[in-house]
Each structure stands twice: as C-alpha cells, then as structure tokens.
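INTERNAL TRANSFER SHEET
From: sequence group
To: structure group
Subject: G protein-coupled receptor

Please process the attached sequence and return the structure record in the designated field. Keep the field labels unchanged so the import script can parse them.
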Amino acid sequence: VQTLIHLIVLSVCPTLIWISWKASPVHRNVRYALIVSLLLEIFGSSSRLVLLWAQYFNANLTDYNDLLLLASLARRFYYLYFTLLISGLLGDQKLYPVKWLRYERQAPSTFLVLLGTGSFISAVSASFSFMLTFHLDADSISTSWIEYIAISSMREVKQLQRRSGRVFGVYSLSRIYQLRENIAVMQMILKMGAPVFKYTTPATVFFFFCIALPANYEFARNFSIAMFDWWLALLSLAVAASLPLFDFRFRKIAVQLPLFRRLITPKNVNSTKVFAVKHAVNDVRQASDVHFSILDRD
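Return from structure group:
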C-alpha cells in the first residue's frame, strides 16, 4: 500500500509543478518555492521506494550500503525540510527592504533572497539529517530547534495578519504588493496547517510507541515505524494533491485539468472563501486592493 501511495505521489507531482509554473499572477519567488518543494517531494518518495525495495525484495543489504545510506539521508532531509519550510517563507518576507520596488517588478535580484533562504533551510535540514542518520545524539537539539522555529513562525504569521488589516496608506505600493503575496501564501499554509497538525497525530503516536518499546519487541517496533512512514506518505499525497485548491490563482489553472475540474465548481474558481480559516483576516485580497482601486479612480 505504501508503495502504491508513493507511486501516486510521483505521478501527481509533475502535474502540480505545471500548475505552479503556469500560475503567473503569483509572484515568481512563490512559484519557484512551490516547485522546489514538489521536486523534493518526488525526491523523498523516491528515496522511500528505494528503502522499501531493499526491505522486501533484497535479502543481502550489504551489497547496497551506499545506496541505502543515501536513501536514508534523503528521507530524513525530506521530512526536516518541510518542517522548516514556513520559516523560509517568512525569512523571504523579512529580508526585503520596506520599499524595495524590485520585489513588485520581480527583478532577477529578488531571486537571490529566495536562493539564500532556501539554501539555509537545506543546510539545516542536511545537517540534522546527517546527525540523525549516524546517531550523533542530535534528537534533543533538533527537537528544540524545530519547536523554536515553529513557535517563532506562528508568531510572525499572526503579526503578518495584523499588519494586513492596517491602513494601507502607510505602506508603499511595492510593500502592499509584497504583503499581499505573503498573506496569500500564509493563508494557504494556515488552511493546510490545522488539518495537517490534526492528521499528523497518529504518526506521532506510532513514532513514540516505537521509542517506548524495549528492544526485544522487534516486530512491534518495526510495525510502528512502518505505520509511521505509511501515514506520512498518505498525508503528503493528500497535502500535495489539495495544494491547487487553496488559492484562486492556482484554481484558475487547475480547472483546465479533468481531475481538478471535478473538484472545483465554476462559482468557486475565483472565490477566496472556498476553505474557511478560523481567526484569519476576512477577504484579505479585497482589502489589499482598496489602495489600487483608489489610484485607478484618480
């Protein structure tokens, strides 16, 4: 079953990459970040398929030590990268000056900021992946860092929501554009965040169940790890497949495909309220367009 799920992920991700590439109204940095994330999803699913192949179809694992080592590193890198992804999106917003018109113009230099934040996340993920794979006693360190980053990221999201409701005259046009793009991304994350947190709970239970069991309960420990991987594979497929549904600009591209056309009704293509978000700012895009509407009338 887990193999089938990963194969579906590998078949769906190219379509999602095409949707992200074609959604040109979305800022280029946002689209590039989504495309890289989907490529890493392909990378992570492929690494898990390698481990499953070695586990079930090859008894002599010593002949494939290097391949299995790379697959184990890739698997842990994949999980850590997506854990830290929200901090990278927030860092991308923080590093831009308040009145940087290049962001609105999507100048090539803005890509350097995305490259810097992405490289930082990749370096942190690779470091923790290496330490966890080689049992370098990094569990407490990595857990503390991830908890700190998660709490800080959620605080920044709340601040971004409050700033979106202020009087737009205090910001430059480029700043309003930047805020609108970041708010759209954060709304997508918040819409996915609650379901992901809820449905990640069983995987967490399986993980701690494996840790708590003594070493002589080998079958139960292996079963718990298998269920942990199976559940996260299913969750990653659900999150990836639902990605185009969380923003109207992606839905406009997605409805061109028969699969998503059945899920998105015509009246919801341009709607910003298909998925309700508790405590989120209502109709953020309409509020951010007020300033531009006034300029058009002038």
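Handover comment: Residues 2-297 form a domain with the Rhopdopsin 7-helix transmembrane proteins fold (CATH 1.20.1070). The longest helix spans residues 173-212.
Transfer complete.
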